[in-house]
Amino acid sequence: MSARSWIPTVLRARLAQEDQIAQRLAVAHRDADRATDQHAEHAARIAAMQSPQVQSMPDFHASLATHQAAAATLAAARNRMLFAEARVNSTMSELTTAARSRRTVEKLHERHQDELASTASGIAQRELDEVSISRHGAQRRRTSE
After folding, report:
1. Cα separation of 134 and 145, whole Å?
2. Using a CB cutoff of 8 Å and minimum separation of 24, what contacts does 99-106 make?
3. Do residues 81 and 28 touch, judged by C-beta distance below 8 A?
4. SS3 category, 120
5. Could you give the CA distance from residue 91 to residue 79 in angstroms, rounded to a whole number?
6. What is the distance between the alpha carbons of residues 122 and 117, in angstroms, rounded to a whole number?
7. Do 50 and 62 contact (CB within 8 A), yes or no?
8. What angle do CA 122, 123, 125 make, to 5 degrees?
9. Residues 6 or more apart from 25 whose CB is under 8 A from it?
10. How many angstroms separate the Cα of 49 from the Cα of each of 9, 13, 38, 54?
């Protein structure tokens, strides 16, 4: 294996890593959207609840328990929403890091390709110079004869 033949392999690995993280980000966005929707539904449900009408003590306690359960559900939905948003942010950070890593390897690969092209161009130029010199020398010998 030559000194630089590993670069395309590393580049493919970085691309695969970036694709995998992008897929995880899409899933995280979908989960965050779902959690946000659920939070909004629970908030609307609580807003629509009536304040307890005191008719009897058991009715009051039942109404109060219903409100407490709805508030707990809303709090749990908010926690899920915040967790999902944090997961989106951390996955976005991972994606940014993976993209930087991939771009670094791409630059290295481009630099290597430029070096190869420059070397090939230099070799071709030397060959042309040698052909020109030999033709010029042959012409001078023929004209001097």
Report:
1. 16
2. 99/18, 101/14, 101/17, 102/11, 102/14, 102/15, 102/17, 102/18, 105/7, 105/10, 105/11, 105/14, 106/11
3. no
4. helix
5. 18
6. 9
7. no
8. 65
9. 88, 91, 92, 95
10. 60, 54, 17, 15
Q: Give tens-digit pLDDT for 85-142.
A: 999 999 999 999 999 999 999 999 899 889 889 999 999 898 888 888 888 777 777 7
| Rounded (10°) angle between helices 57-144 and 7-48 | 160
Burial (CB count <10 Å: 0-12, 13-18, 19+), residue 17: middle
Lowest-confidence region among 32-36, 44-48, 72-76, 139-143: 139-143
Q: Which of 99, 90, 81 is nearest to 14 (CA)?
A: 99
> pTM here?
0.70
CB under 8 Å to 135, separation ≥6 — which residues? none
Residue with tokens 């395309």: 8
Domain layout of the chain by residue ranges: 7-105
Integer Cα distance of 11 and 104 in angstroms: 9
Radius of gyration of the chain (CA): 35
